[in-house]
Amino acid sequence: MVIRNINYVAHISIVDRIINRDLNTLFETAKEVLLSPMRDENDTFKVIVRRMDKKCFMTSIELSKRLGEYLAQFAKADLEDPDYIIYVEVREGSIIIAHSTRDLFRKRRETIPFNWVNCVVSIVEGPKEVYETMDLIRLSHALGIEIRLLTKPITC
Predict the structure, then answer these.
(1) What's the angle, vertex CA 45, arms to CA 49 and CA 76, rounded to 5?
(2) pLDDT in tens, 56-71
(3) Chain-centre distance of CA 25, in angstroms?
(4) Alpha carbon distance 94, 108 (integer Å)
(5) Mean pLDDT (the chain, rounded)
(6) How many whole angstroms separate alpha carbon 50 and alpha carbon 74?
(7) Could you give the CA distance from residue 97 to residue 49 in angstroms, rounded to a whole number?
(8) Quick check: 48 and 13 in contact, CB under 8 A?
């Protein structure tokens, strides 16, 4: 079911695994994630790392370089137009590993439409406290973003 027609999507990735913050586990899991969809030995890849936890043991660029060097043993790297993209997001207690194909991920160098905010719907499932709900409503009003709060139905 389509919630709303969306005019602009930057890129799409498929989340494969969420792992503990261990470098060896990251490298092995990223290798599995890269090799599983590959169909040809000439397929290429690129690594993108986002560090949400700024206290991480290395920068996004350092981690991207090390992971890319490791994966280059198994596939050919192509930073301009890869067949597959390995996306790594470092969070405070975990690492998210996702992948995408060239067609799904292709980043379009367009300007964001002027009315982009009219295309955004924020969906929050199960706000815990009344104050959290009030803050979300105030924030959506301040930003001009539509919000949908999903709560559990009240049962007798």
Answers:
(1) 130
(2) 778 899 999 999 999 9
(3) 19
(4) 29
(5) 82
(6) 23
(7) 9
(8) no
Assign 27 to helix, strand or coil. helix
Can you tell me the distance from the alpha carbon of 35 to that of 99, in angstroms, rounded to the nearest whole number? 11
pLDDT in tens, 86-128: 999 998 888 999 998 887 766 555 556 666 667 777 888 878 7
CA distance 26 to 37: 18
The single residue listed with the structure tokens 């803050």 is: 135
> Is residue 121 within a helix (H) or strand (E), and if so which, with residue range?
strand 121-125
**Chain segment 12-30, per-residue pLDDT in tens:** 778 888 888 888 999 999 9
Which token pair is 109?
A: 């160098």
pLDDT of the residue at 154: 57
